[in-house]
Structure formats: C-alpha cells, structure tokens
C-alpha cells in the first residue's frame, strides 16, 4: 500500500511507512503540544518530494506562522498559505482538490487545515491527497 511521509522518520516507522493517501487525519492536543510542528514537517516533506502544499489558517495570522516555522529552520517559501479567517477571501472560491478536475495537476498534494476548535480542544487536520 502506498504511503505518504509525515516528515518525521520515527513517526513514519510507527505508522508502517506514513499516512495513507486520500484519508483524513485528525491530530488534537492543547497549545504547545506540537500540532503546528507536525503540520510543518508534513508540508516540508511534501515540498521536498516536489509536491504542491497548502496551509489554511483560521486563526493565526500568516506572517506569524511563517515566522514561527522559519525559526525552526523550515523553508516556507514553497508553502501556499491561505488566511481563511476572512470570509470574503477570493482565494477560497475554488475547489481545493478534485481528482476529476481538469486542473488536478494544480491541486495541492498535501493540505493542512489547523486550529479547528471542538470541545475546547485544538485540532489539526492533515490531508495527504
């Protein structure tokens, strides 16, 4: 079965090679538990594999995310950031991913959709498309 790397060698080993493409993975934990760090490793592994990657933020400003990721040594220049906090954001008026789309080659292969809140727990959703 094909697997997609999380970007963390030890985690990939525990997961028998990584994540299964096409499935959605929910990562939850409190502030400072490593959700954004995991998401950054996941996207950086995609960039290293030549994939198009996207980080959709609902709360944290993009410039703060870029600065935080850069402090950890990640190259954020190839990560497409979308600030979804603004409801009139024109970037959100297109399908993010569709296998049947004529422009599927332009769709991201990895998406991170973080900071959803449910029952006061923070979540990160990893989508290896």
Automatic annotation (TrEMBL):
Q: Which Gene3D superfamilies match?
A: P-loop containing nucleotide triphosphate hydrolases
InterPro entries referenced in this protein's UniProt entry, alphabetically: Circadian_clock_KaiC-rel, KaiC-like_dom, KaiC_dom, P-loop_NTPase
Q: Which GO terms describe its molecular function?
A: ATP binding
- Sequence ranges assigned to domain KaiC in this UniProt record: 2-129
PANTHER family found in the cross-reference section: CIRCADIAN CLOCK OSCILLATOR PROTEIN KAIC 1 (PTHR42926:SF1), PTHR42926
Protein name in the entry: KaiC domain-containing protein
Species name: Archaeoglobus veneficus (strain DSM 11195 / SNP6)
- What does UniProt list as this organism's lineage? Archaea, Methanobacteriati, Methanobacteriota, Archaeoglobi, Archaeoglobales
């Amino acid at each position: 079965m094909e697997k997609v790397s999380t970007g963390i060698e030890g985690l990939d080993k525990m997961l028998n090679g990584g994540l299964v493409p096409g499935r959605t993975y929910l990562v939850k934990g409190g502030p400072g538990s490593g959700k954004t760090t995991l998401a950054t490793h996941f996207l950086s592994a995609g960039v290293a594999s030549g994939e198009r990657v996207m980080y959709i933020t609902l709360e944290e400003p993009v410039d703060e995310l870029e600065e935080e990721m850069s402090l950890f040594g990640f190259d954020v220049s190839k990560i497409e950031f979308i600030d979804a906090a603004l409801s009139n954001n024109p970037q959100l008026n297109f399908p993010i991913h569709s296998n049947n789309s004529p422009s599927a080659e332009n769709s991201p292969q990895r998406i991170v959709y973080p900071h959803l809140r449910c029952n006061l727990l923070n979540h990160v959703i990893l989508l290896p498309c």
